[in-house]
Request: fold
Amino acid sequence: MYDRFGEAGLSESGGMGGGMDPQDLFSQLFGGGGGGFFGGGGGGRPRGPRKGKDLPHRVKVTLEELYTGKVTKLALQKHVLCSKCDGRGGKEGSVKSCQGCNGQGIKVILRQLGPMVQQMQQTCTDCQGTGEQIPAKDRCKQCNGKKIIQERQVLEARIEIGMTDGQQIVFKEAADQAPNTIPGDVIIIVDEQPHPRFKRRKNDLITDIHIDLLTALGGGKVNIEHVGKHFLSIDIPQGEVVKNGAIKVLRGQGMPSYRHHEMGDLFINIHVDFPDEIPIDKIPLLEQALPPRKKPSAITNEEEVEDVHMEDISEREAHQGRSQANGAGAGQMEEDDEDEAGGGPGVQCAQA
Ligand SMILES: [Zn+2]
Ligand SMILES: [Zn+2]
Reply:
């Protein structure tokens, strides 16, 4: 069987200071696509150069890398025209048109089918469809007459600051070479990886922070490690109350935009973590600090009062409650929860 053309592959080695040898992992994955010499199977060999196949390759990139930019080295196993014979396959003048097919690469066979004569096309077996023959003694030693050789090339893909998922870096005509063919492009596609703490929305970032109840009520500091590797120290001033479920923004702390490097914003979803219990003797201090309790709604019929006690719900009930909250029962659930001080669905969310 003939060597296949259009066979190339990429592999990558991460980072700038990698030093690791890029491995040629992908060379088997791409390929096929028919011989570079063959026509479409219709009218023999095509006139003029055809365009080779593009070679797409996704590169995994983290938000940190998109914030600072980086260079990824990619090892490309590809076909190049043989330099020894300049892609002729043999000594100059030794390449002759195949006599078996008259240089067409295909033979036309006539077949009698009743009253009809059917024309069939077959790849010429004398020249394996190349349309050419090179005497064995004149054949190029380096490529064995195949005109192309495998070569390993390292491409440096520049992941630029602020690039987005799906964005392409194109290496023009860097894919497989073949005689009479304009090579396709190597297309590197940015594959932005999900971040454990930050979501990206265009150039804005979104994150969640958890603060304790005392900080939420009495002020304090919260630190966030940014994707830009710096730390943000957020000051929650005293005298201001940060509520559970509040969304705040840090202007200019998002991602830099592509090319112009204009900074997006960082949105913060705040979750207030409540303590599980509180010492009873400290409750008077709370009563001093917080607004007074809401008065229970008036009881109009003194004979019909029942004293009841709330229990924690089971794991299964909690699950049912959550799925109900997404459906029709949502309004009901919220109303029932309203009297618990600052509790409700937000607390569940913070625990998740
Ligand atoms: Zn050669
Ligand atoms: Zn032939």
